[in-house]
Amino acid sequence: MKEEIKNKMFKKALAVQKNAYVPYSDFPLGAAVLTADGSIYTGVNIENASFGLTNCAERSAIFSAVSQGKRKIEALLIVSSTEEPVTPCGACRQVIKEFAAGDIEVIMMTKKGKELTMTSKELLPGAFSEQAMEKNNEL
């Protein structure tokens, strides 16, 4: 990924991180997704007293893009306030797989710029996919 695009995604994710609604965990995250047409959509984690209704920043950003008609993401960047980069949860990894345009870069960064980059396939090897659904339907 071009450094200029990554920096733009980082700035957008960092800017929205303050909008996270995290009264229970006090663990704000900001995320930005890059779509195939070069658009960037952001999201934050949004908690709920019924924890199962909480939505992660990664999924919020992806769902924002999808709600605008963007079905494929080219990259995802997550910003945390922790000392070390934070990886996506299992549910987010599956959603990333669903909307990834192939094996995409997932960039995990801290506010201070510490970075860890992995591919979506590295984060979720053997992901549940349409091919798995088709195979199950044949049985």
Report the CATH architecture.
Answer: 3-Layer(aba) Sandwich
CATH class: Alpha Beta
Count of runs of 4 or more consecutive helical residues: 5
> What are the segments in which pLDDT stays under 50 over at least 5 consecutive residues?
none
For the CA atoms, what is the radius of gyration? 15 Å
Describe this structure in words.
The termini are far apart. The model has no long low-confidence stretch (mean pLDDT 92). This protein has a five-stranded mixed β-sheet with strand order 2-1-3-4-5. It has helices at residues 3-17, 57-67, 90-99, 120-123, 130-138, and strands at 29-35, 40-44, 73-80, 100-110, 115-119. It is an alpha+beta fold. The relative contact order is 0.15. It has a single domain, classed as Cytidine Deaminase, domain 2 (3-Layer(aba) Sandwich). It is an enzyme of class 3 (hydrolase). Residues 4-131 form the CMP/dCMP-type deaminase domain. It comes from Halanaerobium praevalens (strain ATCC 33744 / DSM 2228 / GSL). One of its GO terms (biological process) is pyrimidine-containing compound metabolic process.
Structural features:
139 residues; alpha+beta; Cytidine Deaminase, domain 2; five-stranded mixed β-sheet; 5 helices; 35% helix; globular; Cytidine_deaminase-like; zinc ion binding; CMP_dCMP_dom; hydrolase; Cyt/Deoxycyt_deaminase
Quick take:
Helix content is 35%, strand content 26%. With 139 residues, the chain is α+β, with helices and mostly antiparallel strands.
Fold blueprint:
Layout: H1 3-17, E1 29-35, E2 40-44, H2 57-67, E3 73-80, H3 90-99, E4 100-110, E5 115-119, H4 120-123, H5 130-138
Parallel strand pairs: 3-4
Antiparallel strand pairs: 1-2, 1-3, 4-5
